Amino acid sequence: AHPTACLSKQQSLLKVTAGRRARTCTALRDPVRSRERTSIARRNPICLMSAEDRVDGAQQRTLQERVQQLCRTAAIFSTAAAVATGSVLPSMLPPSYAITEENLIYLEAWRAVDKAYVDKTFNGQSWFRVKEKTLKTVSMDDRDETYDAIRAMLASLNDPFTRFLEPSKYASLVGGTAGSVTGVGVEVGFEDNGKGKTQMVVVAPAAGGPAEMAGILPGDRLVAIDGVQTDTMGLYDAATALQGPENSKVVVTTRHAADKQPKDYPMVRQSIDIVPVSTTMCPAPGGGGTSKVGMIKLSTYNSNSAGAMRRAIRELREQGAEAFVLDIRNNGGGLFPAGVEISKMFYDKGTIVFIADNDGIRDVYEADNSAIAKKEPLLLVVNRGTASASEVMAGALSDNRRATIVGEKTFGKGLIQTIIPLSDGSAVVVTVARYQTPNGVDINKIGISPDWVVDPATLPGDKEGLCDSVLSLKQAPKLFGDTLKPAV
What we know:
This protein is of the alpha+beta class. The protein is 31% helix and 25% strand. The chain has a 6-stranded mixed beta sheet with strand order 12-13-14-17-18-21, sandwiched between helices. Strands 3, 15, 16, 19 and 20 form a 5-stranded antiparallel beta sheet that branches. It is globular, with a radius of gyration of 29 Å. The model is unreliable at 1-64 and 73-96 (pLDDT under 50).
């Protein structure tokens, strides 16, 4: 509705009615523009005009204020829609209600959070008022100012995982989940520093990447990148700083948990092809040939992971595997659906994960009788770098008693984000839910505890060395039985 459709030269107020789909504001017809106003009203029932049901006195003043508020709101939203569809030009609108292209980008981001965000209190604030105040008081004369307004809006949620991605960062993220990235090969996240604040830490270094080769470990405090402190960085600011042209140099400053002082690690950025799955057959403990245990290393959950896992299971079976060790150490997650699909491969019936928000459980993912490895003994190896979608799978396999977990407690990232692209190529990453294990455990900031606690320093990074270590554990014969014996 055009703003003038809600304004009458005669200030008599009639009534406000509430319908199932829209609120109706009524005002006297303008005698001069009666036909035009009636036409507008019919097309826009939010400002339907009538000349009936007069009220007066205090009621009139109260209702008049309400009508004016409704009309202002109607003007903002319908003007935005009109500009977006090209039916009204911004220059045709009164200055106080003109919605620019930059405003529309901001409104896209606002609506994305309004619809999807997990906390419907929006960190204890009126989300509608955040939008209204921004549109009225914040300059958005160019794209940079619009992006700043979106960042400020998201910062008010006090959620480090809900964030804005410029077009270049969104494109980089899409490339990363597709299977390749150029940088130092490290995933970063936030954890509580014990003083009520968060600090940036290394979740997991990529296998064979510059960070792992330099000695960076899961849980290391990420202090600075090229001398710039990370205290004021967001996750994607840090990711951008760590990535760069192939063969370019960067200095990453971290501090190990056991060290008092941080250390500089000069690195050369490399193009890192993320191979989601690799395999080997484990040697029999003590030598004497190959066992019947197949080792699978799952490095990430990307668009190729589920298919690669199916092939790995089939190929190991063809080599004689009758049991599996699944290594998800330093797997910081990735695509949530991939984690669910891989979990389904190991059991036919039962819950995989509950999706919950502040109102409780809103969705359930179940196994669907599509398992391809439901009987073989299964050992799952985890560490502090096991996070997010990896924890979904670890919780599912543990609570359904499908796998034994060995290693150390996992990272504890129990939040799910979705990426919502905006029309200009940018995107917002929005926390949409928390996940709970099949037993109803919310693991965020807690993690999953292993069945067999093993010092991570005793578990080698290479597949063959890991095979020897876990199959030599005193608990291994009970789990693996005859599969530990050399294959005939």
